[in-house]
């Protein structure tokens, strides 16, 4: 399942979550969803949950983090990270279909 995959990443990697949020309430919702899924118990560090109000801001944060791999859902963000991040995986693309596909 998707949650099992997330929990495995939390347990085995230095995972950062960068979510879009326009308000403190939206940030709290994301944190609550991660908590309910068991992400923090599996190893996700709370200080590695980050927020941006725009996709461009998220791309900037990812560039600053310099990850080995970035998994992205928005094509424009994935395209902006090419040649800046060693591996960018676009979820929903023909190479990386959605988890439900």
Describe the SSE topology.
Blueprint: H1 2-12, E1 17-20, H2 24-37, H3 39-42, E2 49-52, H4 55-65, E3 69-72, H5 75-81, E4 87-90
Parallel strand pairs: 1-2, 3-4
Could you give a quick summary of the protein structure above?
The protein is α/β, with parallel strands linked by helices and 101 residues long.
What does this molecule look like?
With 101 residues, the chain is an alpha/beta fold. It folds into two domains: 1-53, no CATH class; 54-101, no CATH class. Helices cover 47% and strands 16% of the residues. It is built from five helices and four strands; from the N terminus they run H-E-H-H-E-H-E-H-E. It has a two-stranded parallel sheet with strand order 1-2. The protein has a two-stranded parallel ribbon with strand order 3-4. Strand 3, helix 5 (75-81) and strand 4 form a beta-alpha-beta unit. Helix 4 runs parallel beside helix 5 (75-81). The chain is globular, with a radius of gyration of 13 Å. The termini are close together.
Mean of all residue-level pLDDT scores: 93
Order of helices and strands: HEHHEHEHE
Quick one: biggest sheet?
Answer: 2 strands, parallel
Which stretches are low in confidence, meaning pLDDT under 50 for 5 or more residues running?
Answer: none
Structural class: alpha/beta
**Assembly status:** single chain
Give the total of beta strands: 4
**Strand line-up in the sheet with most strands:** 1-2
Number of helices: 5
How much strand content do the residues show?
A: 15-25%
Helix content: 40-55%
How many structural domains in the coordinates?
2
Distance between the amino and carboxyl termini: 12 Å
Pfam families: HAD_Pex22
Keywords: Signal
